[in-house]
Amino acid sequence: MNTQAMPSAYAELHKRHQRLHHLTHLKSIAEWDQSANMPAKGNEARSLALAEMGGLLHQLATEPALKALLDAAEQEPLDADQRANLREMRRVWRASNALPQELVEAKSLAGSRCEHAWRGQRQANDWTGYLPNLREVIKLAREEANYLADSTGLSRYDALMDQYEPGMRSAEVDRVFGDLRSWLPALIQNVRAKQATETVREPVGSFSKTAQRALGLDAMRLMGFDFEAGRLDESAHPFCGGVPEDVRMTTRYREDNFLPSLMGTIHETGHGRYEQNRPREWLGQPLSEARSMGLHESQSLSFEMQLGSHPAFAKLLSPLLNQHFGAQPAFEAGNVHGLLTRVNPGLIRVDADEVTYPAHIILRFEIERALIEGQIECDDIPALWDAKMMELLGLDTRGNFKDGCMQDVHWGCGLVGYFPCYTLGAMYAAQWFAAMRRAMPDLDAQIGAGNLAPVFDWLKQNIWLQASRYETPELVRRASGEPLNPAHFKAHLQSRYLG
Amino acid sequence: MNTQAMPSAYAELHKRHQRLHHLTHLKSIAEWDQSANMPAKGNEARSLALAEMGGLLHQLATEPALKALLDAAEQEPLDADQRANLREMRRVWRASNALPQELVEAKSLAGSRCEHAWRGQRQANDWTGYLPNLREVIKLAREEANYLADSTGLSRYDALMDQYEPGMRSAEVDRVFGDLRSWLPALIQNVRAKQATETVREPVGSFSKTAQRALGLDAMRLMGFDFEAGRLDESAHPFCGGVPEDVRMTTRYREDNFLPSLMGTIHETGHGRYEQNRPREWLGQPLSEARSMGLHESQSLSFEMQLGSHPAFAKLLSPLLNQHFGAQPAFEAGNVHGLLTRVNPGLIRVDADEVTYPAHIILRFEIERALIEGQIECDDIPALWDAKMMELLGLDTRGNFKDGCMQDVHWGCGLVGYFPCYTLGAMYAAQWFAAMRRAMPDLDAQIGAGNLAPVFDWLKQNIWLQASRYETPELVRRASGEPLNPAHFKAHLQSRYLG
Fold this sequence. Notes:
Two copies of one chain form a homodimer.
Chain A: H1 8-36, H2 43-61, H3 65-74, H4 80-97, H5 101-123, H6 127-152, H7 156-161, H8 170-195, H9 209-222, E1 230-234, E2 240-243, E3 246-251, H10 259-276, H11 293-307, H12 311-325, H13 333-340, H14 357-372, H15 381-393, H16 420-439, H17 443-448, H18 453-462, H19 472-480, H20 487-498
Parallel strand pairs in A: 1-3
Antiparallel strand pairs in A: 2-3
Helix pairs in contact in A: 1-2, 1-3, 3-4, 5-6, 8-20, 9-10, 9-12, 10-11, 11-16, 12-13, 14-15, 16-20
């Protein structure tokens, strides 16, 4: 983009964001490498290098000149996209300036310490050991919430959530999760009753890493991943990192079960394609950023759940499984679909199926909001957890901290207000597919014929290329013709699991 | 290191170099990734990110405050290591400030363009197409040499060479290469006559990449590489990159011949161990840097040639070859040694054996010096090349630019004054082993018994841990008791090839 044609304050801001983009590129690749490649003794130097870069980026994002530039650019003649970009520049600037450096550092330190100790404490089911560390992190998260609430005028919990899901408010989450809460437990019971009468054949393994990797690469090709602009590697915790021009996805392999890696890879491919298809001419500018964590999750879940667990998709997977592992009866398409849609209430969120997953999120949302708003203390978490698990999924977790309130790392490392994004993502994904079906009534037949392009084209035009051009409510309305509507998620689950 | 105990100007310099070290870390890892992992479409964004970081590092290294800090630190009470570090800080500062930014950028651009076109032109044997690009690069290299000569008081060629081999002067190169030139052609003839009477069995392949990689990793273990502080990957052009705390070596595989990858891997392991064993408590400071390109090459050649082609080393390789490729007669130890020491004058430098290699370097040194000093022009290169190839190796290269003066990328991308380092490295390596044998008369027996530790310990104490504490002549004297002495290289070749 030619910055000489831009008004001067805006052009200067544009240049500075481009610079941040270039430097962030190196940080992102080094972070991916840290998880995917780095040997043990490299960690100290890498951590110091990343911290140095983090400090430098924060310094560049908070330079005093920026405020005047942002104000001056408001007065300049900008087109609609430039104005949207300026709105996002201000959001980035506000977020960078909202917190005192000491609080950011103290929270990062307390979070690292708590997470480090948590690894052992979780294994040992040691809630008592964990509690003081968690209290310290939550104390700092409450301070963070106070600062952010002051700077945004939002409630404390909303101010935290706004970092991950800009514009989302807990009143809205209450509305959609309240709806969900009203029908989910009964739906789970009905699905369980129906599935009790069905049999699904277990695949017979083991499944070599080499074959699983080849299968995963084929699945990525099927899902349209651009291998000239990204890679698949291995890491302990799968993620999608790198940069939009060079997306670095990771997975991990279990030789006794290929499904977690396969479906995890399809999930990350959704994140990956969103990144690969952010508007190219805007890369480096805030307008090009993915809209939110919930929107990002709506892409990975569009891939993993809406498409990946679609009955017709099993027909595409079946020949790939026969090819990579050798044919066996469990790989028959109907059985593959059965494997991918079994519903089993369980203790662990990350292992949960599509139907019971939202229960795990509702529980966490209700607890973390009360925690941040000061209605409960960390000590109250286990009892609340037990009560809600019994109510939502009928499971007894008393005394089982390991698989209960200590299972996730989020709170321990200071990430509060993030959990709703997972289920908001699932709802958005269902809403996208409902909109697609209205626009393309033969969509399911197309998927059945192995033609996934209409799905990808719709997501590309309506989500990927829109990036952060619009705030979320407008993006959602433009894409689907209505605000966030949990009825689509309900209809999706009913149709797939009880239809 | 506690900077509070340091005098203040020195402490400030120390802190700034530590910062450069952290930021350079990210650049080094991204550069390694660019060669080892990056897909095609990632290149533009990566290049921009690296250029941004290059500019930032240059800006930090030339901040106006540095001059006063360096001068003030000279007056502070420093211990011997701190004073050596200050000397190296000044060298870095002088190098960073010697050239106008526009020249650096123009040369980088012209070099990139010339190199890019060279890839096709070399294939097409197109000297006429290449010549105008080369003229432009050499014009800029001459300007660079003028600036560096002005700032250092050296001759133009010496000023260029000083960037890679600090302290080395062409008078010294003349002395040692002149000696070499006097006996090398006759030695080559004698070795060729001797080897004409010997038969060496060719290994029967192909050799799978998987088996070659496993063999390479075993060889690296044998050579003491620390896999907790480094990795082996693949790239089109093998190199040793990364950071001292996390060394990233690469190799490439040919399925018809395992020797280039195996010996290349052993070569890079020499570079890698030097990097892994630079003084830990000084990392980030100029004192900890590898002393020079020639010294670096002396380590890779100590590994590849002095050790790797040692008759006793073949006995260590032989069982590894049998293990990874299956036993065959060519893997018998004596035959392996024969394979590793065959002498064949050829056109291509990078394919040359240990005996004919220096002829390729002498030729390049003589031409590039005359070019920089203005005694010849680019147009004169082919005729000079042909004459010297005939004189030194008895080979006719007339009209064959592809395998003649267009074979290397160095001049085309503006690297002039570097070539001598390769043969200086070979001479230093021979000198180290002569010193080791004086200190440990049973060295060859130890190597024969598979005990390589005495070699590694000697290199670690005398070279690796010394880093840039001393200037090269003093380092060489301290390590080997005498200045650079080509007699050791001659004795080594005579003993190995005619003994």
